[in-house]
Every structure is written in structure tokens, then in C-alpha cells.
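Help needed: design a sequence for this.
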């Protein structure tokens, strides 16, 4: 038997007790644990696009003959395409392996041991994850009862040690946006502010044009949700002048695969198709919300994203999540007291809403 204890003493001490990111359950892991076949599992737990990606992406990937060649490390063509879509100069863009990887890159650029990162919790857990890995200190500001942010508290949390402020809008897992005026006030602190717009296409609200005006504003976007490319991993960030060069220098080489590059190109050639699917999700979000509201066991929160957060009013959210899982319906449960006993439900197709609502009625 190899003794692993000896090598563990070399691990950076602050990572010994580190709790990683708890990712959503994959149906593959449920074989034998649920009452339905894996193939009929309904996945409403990871905010994925139920309509998949553009058919143009599938066709182009099937036809590609150069997967043996590395992608362009400088992302020249990719950045030009993204620039056109986002309406910003190409040199201010950096693309990555999902917007997660850009969050990580930004933290690595700005945050060292004991530097502070202001985080408005509950929110997307990767901000904590990357900050802690870099040895930074999180300054957590609790959101209000309706999950809005009190900007006075955020501004009061800024200290000479603050290196970044993270703002997800719409926020994951609560679905609410941050009013533009509040974001502008937070930008006025002068500290680098990361506005994470992973769900922008579903909210229609963006700070992107303001990147031309403020030299401490970073906007992040993703192709995982609106373009249905979660499995191919592409996201991008728009940075203040002079900052993207540093990120390009510290990123891992070839951080966007050839397949992902092709997928972006084809998605951006099929924006109308994808926006129609986004519209379908937005329409279904309204129906799902109305149906959830009719249940006495749940309190859904209004959402501008492709998911709805619900407080469980009777019994435990964890138990409800597990009972739905047994019936083959996956939703997301977070073991976080700030989330007040809730589950997050991704918006699916109309038939997914029907199946979920039927299951919830059966469980009531
Ligand atoms: C707020 C937020 N930001 C970023 C991401 C990461 O997206 P990806 O890495 O798939 O681009 C997610 C994914 O769930 C998210 O909810």
C-alpha cells in the first residue's frame, strides 16, 4: 500500500480544509438509485439549455478535419467574432474555457494572500472557490430577504485591501438582477468590479456599453446557457483598456478548444435561431412561475434568468430534492442557511414543466 500521508504535508496549508465547488448531479451517477430509467431523467438542475445548441454547430463539428491542430492561442478570429456580438473592441476581450475559468483567471490576476474580495451572498460559489484557492479573504455581504443587495453595505465593505467586487446579475441561484444605478454606484468605488452576465440573453439587461466608460468595470458572459454550449465550455470577458493583455499572458495556452471555437462561430452565425429558443425559455419561465405559485408547499421568486428559485414552505428542501430525484426529476438543492430551505429549478421545455408540476402535486 502506498502511504499518501507523507506527501500531504507539502500541500499548501490553506487548501488542506478547502471545500470544493459542489457541482450538480449528473444522471450517470444515479443508476440503480432512482425509480425511472436514466434515459428518462428530466434535468432541471444545471441551468442548461433544454433545446441544445444550434444545428449549425453540430454540422460544422461533424465536418471538421483539423482537431489534430492546436487552436490559435491569441484567439484572433474568436475575439473578432465576440467583439462584433458584444459591441466592444476585440483587444479588450479574453475568451476562456467557460466563464468559470475567466473568474478564476481574474482572481489570479488581482488577488493574493490576505487581499479582500467583496462577495454578495448567497451567490455563485465560484467567486468563493477561486478567492480561497488564491489565499484571498472573502468579505461576505448578506443579501436582503428578497435577495437584493444593499449597496450601502457593499460600499462600506470596501477597504484598502479590496481587490475585487463580484456582482452576478441575474444572480445565481436567486434569479434577480441588480439595478443599473446600483451597479454604477458600486463602480464609483474605483475598485475592479466584475459584473457576471452569464444569463444576459435571458434578462436583456447588460452593463456591456458601460465598459467603454469605466476603467474598473469587467463584464463576463457565457455561451453555456443561451447558446446551449455548456458541454463545450466557452465564455468571455470584456476588460478595461490594458487589462486583457495581462490575462492573455497568464492564461493557460490554448484555453479554448478548436471545437469550442467552431461552436462559437456557428452559434454567432445562427443568432436568430438561438434567440428564438431563448424566447421559448422566457415564455416557459413565466408559465413555470405561475404553476409553482399555485402550490402551497413552494414560494417561487421572480427570475430574470433561465431558472427559478423557490423557498420550500413545508418540510425540508433537501428531502423534496431527493424525492423529486427518485421520480427522475433533477433540481438543485444548496445546503446553505442563507438560502432559507430552497431549491432552484431550471426552466425546461413545456413537457418538463408539466412533469415537474405533476410530481410536485403528487408529493404535496
Ligand atoms: C452566475 C454564473 N456565472 C458563471 C457561470 C459559469 O458558466 P460557464 O463556466 O459554464 O460559462 C455560471 C454557471 O452556472 C453562473 O451561474
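Sure. Designed sequence:
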Amino acid at each position: 500500500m502506498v502511504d499518501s500521508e507523507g506527501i500531504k504535508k507539502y500541500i499548501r496549508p490553506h487548501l488542506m480544509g478547502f471545500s470544493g465547488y459542489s457541482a450538480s448531479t449528473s444522471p450517470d451517477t444515479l443508476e440503480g438509485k432512482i425509480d425511472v430509467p436514466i434515459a428518462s431523467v428530466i434535468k432541471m438542475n444545471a441551468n442548461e439549455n433544454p433545446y441544445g445548441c444550434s444545428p449549425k454547430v453540430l454540422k460544422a463539428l461533424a465536418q471538421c478535419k483539423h482537431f489534430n491542430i492546436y487552436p490559435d492561442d491569441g484567439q484572433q478570429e474568436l475575439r473578432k467574432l465576440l467583439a462584433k456580438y458584444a459591441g466592444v473592441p476585440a483587444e479588450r476581450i479574453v475568451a476562456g474555457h467557460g466563464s468559470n475559468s475567466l473568474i478564476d483567471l481574474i482572481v489570479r490576476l488581482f488577488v493574493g494572500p490576505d487581499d479582500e474580495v467583496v462577495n454578495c451572498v448567497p451567490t455563485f460559489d465560484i467567486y468563493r472557490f477561486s478567492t480561497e484557492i488564491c489565499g484571498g479573504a472573502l468579505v461576505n455581504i448578506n443579501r436582503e430577504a428578497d435577495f437584493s443587495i444593499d449597496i450601502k453595505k457593499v460600499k462600506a465593505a470596501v477597504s484598502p485591501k479590496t481587490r475585487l467586487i463580484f456582482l452576478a446579475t441575474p444572480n445565481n441561484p436567486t434569479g434577480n438582477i441588480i439595478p443599473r444605478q446600483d451597479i454604477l454606484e458600486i463602480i464609483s468605488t474605483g475598485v475592479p468590479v466584475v459584473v457576471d452576465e452569464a444569463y444576459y440573453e435571458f434578462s436583456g439587461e447588460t452593463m456591456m456599453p458601460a465598459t467603454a466608460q469605466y476603467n474598473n468595470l469587467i463584464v463576463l458572459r457565457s455561451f453555456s446557457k443561451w447558446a446551449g454550449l455548456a458541454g463545450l465550455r466557452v465564455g468571455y470577458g470584456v476588460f478595461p483598456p490594458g487589462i486583457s493583455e495581462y490575462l492573455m499572458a497568464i492564461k493557460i495556452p490554448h484555453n479554448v478548444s478548436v471545437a469550442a471555437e467552431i461552436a462559437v462561430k456557428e452559434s454567432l452565425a445562427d443568432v436568430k435561431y438561438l434567440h428564438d429558443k431563448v424566447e421559448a425559455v422566457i415564455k416557459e419561465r413565466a408559465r413555470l412561475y405561475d404553476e409553482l405559485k399555485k402550490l402551497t408547499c413552494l414560494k417561487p421568486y421572480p427570475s430574470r434568468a433561465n431558472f427559478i428559485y423557490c423557498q420550500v414552505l413545508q418540510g425540508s428542501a433537501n428531502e423534496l430534492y431527493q424525492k423529486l430525484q427518485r421520480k427522475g426529476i433533477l433540481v438543485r438543492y444548496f445546503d446553505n442557511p442563507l438560502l432559507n430551505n430552497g431549491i432552484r429549478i431550471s426552466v425546461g421545455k413545456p413537457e418538463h414543466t408539466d412533469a415537474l408540476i405533476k410530481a410536485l402535486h403528487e408529493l404535496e
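The chain has a mean pLDDT of 96.
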